[in-house]
Amino acid sequence: MSAIAPTPRDHGAIRAVLRRHGDALPRASIGTVPILWNNVDVAELRHGTDAATVLDEITRTGFEGTQLGLGFPTGDDLRSALGARGLRLAEVYAAIPATVDGPTDGTMAELRERLRLLHEADGEVLCLALDQSPGREERAGRATTPGTPVLSDAGWASLAEVVHAIATEARGLGHRTVFHPHGGTFVETPAEVERLVAATDADLVGICLDVGHLIVGGGDPVGTLTALGERVTHVHLKDVDAAVLARLRTGGLAGFDAAIRERLFTELGAGVLDLDGVIAALVRRDYDGWLMVEQDSCWGPPSESAAIGRRVLAGALRRAGAATRNDTATTAPHGQKGGT
Fold it and tell me: DSSP string of 47-109?
């Protein structure tokens, strides 16, 4: 049986508590990813929660939008379900199967189907990523070690061609496209992220910076946000458990999926992520895209972890807003007060 959904007045009140005047990034939207309830990649981590209950819990915990989740309705039915809860379809995720020679045959048909789902439900962003590949899934977190398979030059060219093709179709339908570097794939390490950025058209393809996956790949979220600047148009916020990450990097875990089973990704504030630093980097460029709170698996009830993540983010945005006001007051000309 589905949980009782908050009324529009209720969910408006919840969101107002979590987003107050003066908080940082007022133009950004805040969503979540329902993989927390039903993991797309690891079947045993699916709680079996029905779509209506997942959407109710996303609403109840104060989010404004969601990624398309496993078992969700589509088209008119999804639009109605979201509208009744005051939610938006922030993104549809599309995984690209690949070998060292690039995307496999039939990829465009699969991507067009994901784009169709986005468009028919009035969604906003098409989020592309490479799917996990044999040889890379096992080397997640230590992909720079000798013998790790990498994309060939032809593979990079093929990937760019496919990404540009689907992004062009998405733009024709009014949707933005982003590319999401991902652990256990051929675009994981900082060098691979740099090459992906260089290989794709900035006017057509934004970067979805998943700060958790970037940490797994050996990158620095704050430094990367600063370096990439406006190229980052979509952000996945996830924290990383230090102990599980260490086991992954030393080969103590069999690969990325094994690390997910051990809860590699944890609640915001409980891991190694410098969340305040990430928010500060986004504040410096007045970021106005989505902030998607994500956690692939959890030890307790999914709604508990979702609520923790949303409230930790609320605290970070409040601190950043206060810091900005303090900086403004400090630098205001003599005899003038800083803005409020």
Answer: ----HHHHHHHHHHTT-SEEE--TT---HHHHHHHHHHTT-EEEEEEEEE-EETTEEPTTHHH
